[in-house]
Specification:
Helix content: 40-55%
Order of helices and strands: HEEHHHEEH
Structural class: alpha+beta
Number of domains: 1
Largest sheet: 4 strands, antiparallel
Distance between the termini: 67 Å
Strand content: 15-25%
């Protein structure tokens, strides 16, 4: 009985320490060639908006495919300094035009997709369309 309790306690402890990947709830409000307005339910809504644009794409928008076509892991290994500045030093916030709380608890985030794409091109993360 003691060993069963110990096994149960260890399992619960390991599960509580594991990282949790949760999907953000993202809804498109408006989408144009230069910006995208999203309603996001997440602890870090601005981060989630930029992250999804880069590596996942946003369904029901004009950016359904990710801006970066290679895997997140491979891209971050190839350009570690860029992504360190982008995510760890909060540079992603420079691409957020506005961010405000909605009455339902979600956050309305406007991302300047044109500036984000241009920055990726200038840093050789992606190539210009047609080149």
């Amino acid at each position: 009985m003691k060993s069963l309790f110990f096994l149960f306690a260890v399992t619960i402890g390991l599960l509580s320490c594991s990282s949790r990947n949760h999907a953000s709830d993202i809804q498109v409000v408006d989408s144009s060639d230069s910006s995208m307005t999203l309603n996001i339910t997440d602890q870090k809504p601005e981060y989630a908006a930029v992250y999804h644009l880069l590596f996942r794409g946003i369904p029901n928008s004009n950016q359904t495919t990710p801006l970066i076509s290679t895997s997140e892991e491979a891209t971050e290994k190839q350009f570690p300094e860029y992504f360190k500045k982008l995510f760890n030093e909060n540079r992603y916030k420079t691409f957020v035009s506005s961010s405000s709380k909605n009455s339902n608890g979600s956050q309305r985030v406007v991302v300047n997709t044109k500036a984000l794409r241009l920055d990726l091109e200038q840093n050789s993360i992606i190539r210009k369309f047609g080149y």
